Amino acid sequence: MLILGPLGFATPWLLAALAAQPVLWLILRAMPPAPKRLAFPGVRLLQGLRDRNPVAQRTPWWLLLLRILAVGLLILAFAGPLWKPVVTAPASGPLLVIVDSGWAAAPDWSARQARAERALNDAAAAGRPTALLMADGQGADGPLAFEAADRLIAGLNGAAPQAWTSRLPDDPAGALVDVPEGPLSTLWVADGLDGENRAAWLSALSERGPVTVVPPGRPITALSLAEGDTPSLTLHGTDALPRAILAIGPDPQGIERELAKLTPGDPVTEGGITRHPVAIDLPPELRNRITRFQIEGEAHAGGVVLADDRVRRRKVGLVGDQDSAAEGQQLLSPLHYLRQALEPTSDVVEGGLGDVLNTAPDVIVLADQIGMPETDQLAAWVEDGGMLIRFAGPRMAASDRLADDPLLPVRLRPGGRDIGGALSWGDPRGLAEFSGDGLFAGLAAPEDVAIRAQLMAEPAPDLSSRTIASLTDNTPLITRAERGQGQVVLFHVTANAEWSNLPISGLFVEMLDRLVASARASVPDEAQATDREQSFWTPELVLDGYGRTQNADDLAPVLGGDLALGPGPGQPAGLYRAGERQQALNAGGPLVLATWPGAVIEEAASAPGRDLKPPLIVIAVLLLALDALASALLARGMRVRRGATAAMVVGALILMMPAPGAQAQATPTEIDEETIRAADEVALAYVLTGEEDVDLLSEQGLSGLARVMSLRTSVEPGAPVAIDLDTADLSVLTFLYWPVTEGQPTPSPQAYVRLNHFLRSGGMILFDTRDGDLAGVGGPDMSGTLQALAAPLDVPPLAPIPDDHVLTRSFYLLEDFPGRWQGNPVWAEAPPAGAERLEGQPFRTLNDGVSPVVIGANSWAAAWALDESGVPVLPVGRGFEGERQREMAFRFGINLIMYVLTGNYKSDQVHVPALLDRLREESGEIEVMP
Amino acid sequence: MMASPADLRTRAQSAAAALPALVLSAERLAAMIAPGAHGLRRGGAGEDFWQYRPAGQGDTARSIDWRRSARSDQQFVRDREAQTAQAVQIWVSAGRGMDFAGSGSGPRDERPTKRERAQVLGLALAMLLLRGGEKVALAGSPPRAGRVQGDRIAEALALQPLVEDDDDIPPAQSLRPNQRVILLGDFLGDVDPLTDYIAQAAAMGVRGAALQVLDPDEEVFPFAGAVLFQSATGRMRHDTRDAGGLRDAYLSRLAERRALLTDTARAAGWHFGTHDTATPPASALMWLYRMLEG
């Protein structure tokens, strides 16, 4: 090292390059820019012209100075200048540098590196044989190799703190076999924590020579997960500062961010270590999103607790009858209510019982199931600690094997009871208050929850102890029993709103949350982990020493038994997965402080001198940037002002441009007058085809139908609404008449989105291809056009309307659906495949809900069309027969609108006797009172 | 330049490959102007009806229009309007400097070379005139009428070789009295041969028009910085360190030259116009046509 006054240079020979500066001056000065060659026919006009303001052939002196200065600064910077360097007294003999490389070293790692590097530099200057021991447990065992110190610096700079605690080789004596002659001095850059064989190393080193310990520059903190039923955290620290704990996870947009900040509780100080308990007091929705907890302002792996199954959501398996596919029926399914209640707070798995069991859930919910083939496996699962929640239902009530079912908390009386029904005495029962020490303690029982039916328990001595919720008459509503390590819970009501309105109250969700939270999370213990076939844990995500997540792709799976030993070489802290199970390996834990008997503790005060290299490089780079700017200005012929003005103008324009969102908000949403009217009354709507006569006929047809309906029924539709599919809002409509014409343009994709939404929300489209005389005279076949128009629609499978379809009896009893033509099949949603006619019933129990489309070719609007005075516009058929057909067309129209408005009301079996009477008495089509 | 027959044939083929495009664009251009009746506003030999006049002495019985005469007691003669065909020589400069197109900044700025533009203009004018019944030829060959002449001119234009020099001079020996001459070139070379040519033409009673076809780069001089300007042959060059500073001097010289040419042309009863290859050729064609009409 060269010392010049207060300035020292680490590599002084580089300063020789300063001598080359004058040469650089000459080179830089004599470099004119090369001209551009250009073919130009008008050269003759240029002959003899002189450059008006000749550009300097030579670079201006100030630019030269700038460049020379920049290069000079760079040379100085690379010569390694130090301001007031510390000149340590030269020592001799071998040197051993130990650098603790666990997570506790991560917060001030660069300072540690700098301290060790300084020691190595000094040793290199003094020519001492040196060895470097990175205490990260990754080095090869065996004797330490002593070599020239400057060869170790690269290894030191390449090292990084690891996500486990510092580890020293097992055998100090064996490692120190190759120490050269002389007293061995040791510099130990320690992280302050006690390690496995640190004391042995310290004594071994103290015997061989002086040991200097560099203590950590800042307090050590760690975060660990406290075991227990309710997961909580513990904050360990060498000082009593209550640091906040950040809970980090994806927000609803999926962006990783701080979700909550936890404040530590009362500290407990013991042996220099302060422990703060930290409760994870968060709503379940929030808690389930958390992926990691982290000490605020601490960047090391020990300050990070990764959330795994112990913190995470429980996995709940749902087993029940599959939902029927038809729309509108989800509300009848018990699984729907369970799904809605459980999905926000837990992982829900659905399927058959066998499949659900294979996914190793924490909780299994059975909705009205009895006598399942997998009962034995289920019982074994419960014995192993699973939680089974069962719901009663009609099937359980009707079963005669109720008493045989082993997985019930109490013996049940077959049949159940109805309270407050049409055929029973008494009112529906409410809920009794929950007992203050039970599972549901603190939950408020809403008064409007009423139980209309329940399964009754047989009286038994332990019934009251097993009841965790009961009705006002003290009959049990929810019972629970332990089975081995697990438990079985029975709701004596259904999970849908059939027997009670409990499932649609908020209490239902809270109860399920409590129950699920009380389930034992399936954490695999070590013995289990080694026994199982999947005993290898694959790292999914690992931490580096700074607590940052790293890709875990190149890490080998870890044996379950090794994983129990905690993080170490080859198994850094992180998330590990084996099959369905996930386990976090966290670096942080209780802290044990190291003591250093017989060693010299280095004072942190002796600063190593200020390194001037970075500021010099920064200045040089700034100068070079300035040079580039100045050169560019010179090349542009000093036209600075114009360019600057243009830039300012552009900037101002950008600023003045209004935000597009603001503009969009400014325009008010316009609502069509017609739409308002359609929402006001029942309005029949038709699609504008673009053909005037067809549109006029649709309008007249629908107004004719509306007039007839007003006369005969209580439905009084207003004037028809013309719909342009590309623009209209369909949300207020119920019925859409769509005549199919040949040249009709296909609506836009947005229109189809609206149409599909219209169909899903209960609307109906009547497609009319108006070509009913196809079989006879001929006429354009519209099926191609219809296919093109209807293809993007969300239409269920269709079938010709069967004889017992509700359309045949929703107002009039009809056999055919004539329009201006007749005898053509009319298509609607196909009845479900399994529908069968019950004995003695005239009708099958057909699909629930309304067919979204009805398709026919009978040109109904032409038959319905009436002009202002109520006179038919077009003739139908011939003579009286034709008028009869028109009447039938009107009746079909009325039936259709009734069907649209009232749905399957008329297929309700309640009306069967009345309909049977009518059918018996009248042979034809006679009005039936709706 | 001596060319072997094979060499000549390849060049002819490659030139003929451009021929349909040349003819097409010229035809499209020519179709934009309908050649009006080119009457001399007096009776004479022609095709169009001019007037009925009472038959006088010297009118043969054949010339009497009997249909008109039958309506009165006098005999009438049906006069036709005198129509004469003009002979026009078109000269397109073949100087090396004409084979130049400035570099535009975008794909839409792609411009034809001055030569292409001058050829298109020349051929379009020739076709237009031929359609109007005039006799047309390239300078140096005898003017003829008829559609075949258009094809001949097109072929000659396409096969016309570039001269070895930067500039081309219109051949004064091909001037004939009572013809019209159209000169298409950039006129950036030596100005004396051109003024001499015009003076000679004026002395022989030949009138005409000269159209200076220039690239926008030559009109605007958008260069800056250190540039070495070279002519097409490389014989003439100019080195500058600050091309932007030369712009004003260049433009004033260009204006000076144009003023000189305009004055020369006016003194000789000629017309002088300019055309920019970045603008559509139709306006230039209109101008040429109008100059021929007047």
UniProtKB/TrEMBL annotation, chain A:
<dbReference type="InterPro" id="IPR011933">
    <property type="entry name" value="Double_TM_dom"/>
</dbReference>
<feature type="domain" description="DUF4159">
    <location>
        <begin position="684"/>
        <end position="901"/>
    </location>
</feature>
<protein>
    <submittedName>
        <fullName>DUF4159 domain-containing protein</fullName>
    </submittedName>
</protein>
<keyword id="KW-0812">Transmembrane</keyword>
<feature type="transmembrane region" description="Helical">
    <location>
        <begin position="6"/>
        <end position="28"/>
    </location>
</feature>
<feature type="domain" description="Aerotolerance regulator N-terminal">
    <location>
        <begin position="8"/>
        <end position="81"/>
    </location>
</feature>
<dbReference type="Pfam" id="PF07584">
    <property type="entry name" value="BatA"/>
</dbReference>
<keyword id="KW-0472">Membrane</keyword>
<keyword id="KW-1133">Transmembrane helix</keyword>
<dbReference type="Pfam" id="PF13709">
    <property type="entry name" value="DUF4159"/>
</dbReference>
<dbReference type="InterPro" id="IPR024163">
    <property type="entry name" value="Aerotolerance_reg_N"/>
</dbReference>
<feature type="transmembrane region" description="Helical">
    <location>
        <begin position="61"/>
        <end position="83"/>
    </location>
</feature>
<dbReference type="InterPro" id="IPR029062">
    <property type="entry name" value="Class_I_gatase-like"/>
</dbReference>
<dbReference type="InterPro" id="IPR025297">
    <property type="entry name" value="DUF4159"/>
</dbReference>
